[in-house]
Design goal:
single chain, 184 residues, alpha+beta, Aminopeptidase, seven-stranded mixed beta sheet, 7 helices, 40% helix
């Protein structure tokens, strides 16, 4: 069962994130890796910053979590984690599908560039890598992370974002053409 998490779930959310995030130890530079991956204070800040967590629960125990964060013109999917012993069982996909169903505008997801398994997972559900030349702009606009982290990250976007992006690009081109400007 998927449900909205409440304050009593904090400890379980914390444990799931740090259990599942252990895989990132291999791709995060050693000087930036810390244990736990996310401290209780960091988790509190994320929740205070507008992330609402949902969890996949079985027999009264959360097995996976994912956050959703509506912003001005997009919704971010954040902190998608499933206990390592329960991965590859549809829990993450169920959470992503459920949370995506709560949105009606463009959705963006950020992850580590070297986390090929995470990128592949999101692509399986219809998300595609945002253009590389726009990734840093998106990261700076929607995420709060150190520069070293952003330099090692990618953004995946849903079809709604790509459709709006194309519409805006077409509008810009039309506007330039109407003014007699070259496409430079």
């Amino acid at each position: 069962m998927i449900r909205k998490c409440n304050p009593e779930d904090f400890e379980q959310i914390f444990k799931i994130i740090n259990n599942a995030a252990e895989i990132y130890r291999e791709i995060i530079p050693p000087e930036h890796w810390h244990n736990p991956y996310m401290t209780p204070e960091n988790l509190e800040q994320e929740i205070a910053g507008g992330i609402t967590f949902y969890g996949y629960q079985e027999k009264g125990r959360l097995l996976g979590v994912m956050g959703i964060q509506p912003l001005d013109d997009v919704t971010l999917m954040r902190h998608a984690y499933v206990y390592t012993a329960r991965q590859q069982q549809g829990i993450g996909g169920g959470l992503l599908t459920y949370l995506y169903g709560l949105t009606n505008g463009p959705v963006l997801i950020g992850t580590w560039a070297d986390a090929f398994w995470a990128i592949r997972f999101y692509q399986k559900y219809g998300f595609n890598l945002a253009p590389q030349e726009e990734t840093m702009d998106l990261l700076y606009r929607y995420w709060k992370a150190p520069k070293w982290h952003m330099e090692r990250s990618v953004v995946l976007a849903d079809k709604r974002w790509f459709d709006l992006h194309q519409l805006f690009s077409n509008y810009q081109q039309s506007w330039r053409t109407s003014r007699g400007e070259n496409n430079q």
